[in-house]
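Assemble and predict.
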Amino acid sequence: MKHKIKQLDDVATIYKPDKALRNVIGSDVSLDTVFSPNVLKMAQQLINEARDSSFEQFSVDIKTLDIMLVKIAQTGNAAHSAAFVDIAEHVANIKGVAEFFNYRLVSNVCKHIIKYCETTHYQYDTRIGLIKELTNILHVVIKEKINDDSNVIGRKLQLSLDNF
Amino acid sequence: MRNAITRLSTAAINKRLEKIQILIIDNSIHTSNLIKAVLEKFGFSKILVARDAYEGAKELRNNSVHIVFADWELKVFRNKADIPSKTDSLLLNGMQFTKSVRHSANSRNPFVPIVLSIERGNPCSKDSLRDCGVNSILTKPFDAATIAERLINIIEEKRLFIKSAFYRGPCRRLYLLPPPASGERRKSILRLANLNTNHSGAL
């Protein structure tokens, strides 16, 4: 069921609210049962566990990043583009988790690494060098579990990031 | 009616929820997996995951998706061999992705509910995010209850869907309230203003 109304020079079509999802679930299913306090508690527990283990996950991911950086330094120029894409994709994984839990410093460093993976304004060696420096910062942030720039080390690292 | 609701077992409810297909689009596999795990805890089992805007658009074309959870960052890192034009590869953020789903002639379901998750401090204003046609916005960090709340709002959607040349998406009036009881509607206020102008000659 749709109605047409005239709006100056544009015609807007208005559709009734989509009940497709409700129809699929069925009108006899109470959403209070689907999203019961117990279910919400279990789901929240998953998020909490992921938050608690996020820095351990970062440590694993950064080790893989180190290996990728060693490999990229050993490969020829022809294989560099693909290697930079691999690094950017890998760092995007870390950045996603950092954003999800509001670890701003980790997310900022990752943004810079992705930026240097994507840019073509610098030569390969310069880009690799910059990414290595940023990875070193990431090592410190993850080791010290620094969430943002509210402490001294965080502020210093954020300042050094501004120079990149 | 209440008895009929309570009589349904968890297994029966889960069987119904199995019919709903959800698509998660996120550059981070870890985040996609986390959201997927949360949705699975709620009882949803048909969950598709896409890595970027291009993969997401492809999944939407090939599957009957009921709900989309899209992240703000949907960068296409890898060169896709089957990207037909440069414009497809430029779908980099959730806002552009939503607009393309709503406006594209190739879109399988332009009405599909889209929940966009954004980072705290995202430079885009809430108004511009709303104007791209998303159903709901999730600001990170969010908890399980917030995801559930968004899902309930989508399932019990009360808003009209607007399709015009400038905007396609759910009605941007979040609350459909009846006119005020006092009878002070815009038209009557305007008429009153005109009358005042005519009488006093001011304005």
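Chain B touches chain A through 58 residues (CB under 8 Å).
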